[in-house]
Amino acid sequence: MSDVSPQAVVIGASAGALEALTTILPALPEDFPVPILLVVHIPGDKRSVLAELFRAKCRIKVLEVEDKEPLAAGTAYFAPPNYHLLVEANKTLSLSSDEPVMFSRPSIDVLFESAADAFGPALVGIVLTGANHDGARGLRAITDAGGQAIVQDPKTAFAAAMPEGAIARCPGARVMSLDAIAASLQKVVCA
Amino acid sequence: MVEKVEDIEIRLLLEALYARYHYDFRGYAMASVKRRLRQALEQLAIPTISSLQERLLHDRDMLPQLLGYLTVQVSEMFRDPDYFRAIREQVIPHLRTYPSLKVWVAGCSHGEELYSLVILFREEGLEERTLFYATDISQEALQIAEAGVYPLDRMQLFTENHRRSGGKSSLSDYYQAAYGRVSFDRTLRRNVVFSDHSLVTDAVFGEMNLISCRNVLIYFDRTLQDRALGLFKDSLPRKGFLGLGAKESIRFSEHAGAFRDFVREEKIYQRIGA
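^ Those are the sequences you sent over. The predicted structure of the assembly is below.
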């Protein structure tokens, strides 16, 4: 395990995301010490209600990202529908309209890979429930850069394919239930 | 912190691209550039960015290929239908009061946004008095835009977008389909000037009534965004309109004070002062 204290958490989720995130995000305290970046697969033609929904439930701040948004601690940043979300080296967020990756825009891999470049070992990547294989490649990029990987236990996931794919690509990832992830996030980040 | 080898390579490649061919990507948002370069290496089977740089410097044919990776994005006609509805319902009534109009589609790429606006202006009876400027840095993209040919399988989406934007005609009135592709009516290009123009290195070229530049600025870093927004500011007289992409904002720009929100949720701004 890395001895670098994390500066950010990235989370990817697809089918079943809402319920999974409802276990994790509202559990975080207002003064959670790092930003949390999220890609959730959502239909591209809709205005997303994710940020609004979680804003009402969470103690941390919740935003839908606008281009060049700077990162702040204690804040969750949702990728907007129909854009990829990336982290720049100067720790601001940028968006892209590049083609979907594995049919997804936003893509979990795109966020994770750029975050791995920006944060190196000071990053925690979490892959949750989902019915595709997005996130596996990105999670691997995070561990290759020395960051930490956590995957939702496929047995407890609404859809097992995505966590299974992530574990196959990152055998060293810690596999946990949602409750365990929620409980350990605080410890992981403050370690 | 020590600069990573890949980052050094990217910096040098972009210097080479500028020194040799005068295409300036040095102020682009690097996370996307890096992704696209990694993609280029993979697909062109080139081992490192340094070897890509060597090819670029010594082989002219490499240039259009690389530009293809660095510039082209797939868009949609009437992408974000609510934006076009807001142009139609809230901006057009103002534009109607002018005897002649100039519209600039900056970073037109393959022309989807351009044709959307021309069709909208035709539906509103303003096409005749409007001159459209469609600009991009990529010759290849401009050629595709000028040809107005798109894959047939995209038409279902374009048609649905057009309908949701409040379209007053049927999109199929404007194209002919053959062999899996559609070709847009050449009369749509009657009042369009296609031109090579860079928001990074070129200057203002005229006074516009509406500038539509959607999902182009997201590829720039903050400094470059300020330059481009400065160009837009100087191209718009008082009450001129600027439309950006759904998640783009002038909030973080030094030029924010030159504009007011006109349709806030659609990122349509109006020039003030001047």
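Chain B has two domains: 5-71, 81-271. Chain B is about 40% helix and 15% strand.

Shout if you want it in another format.
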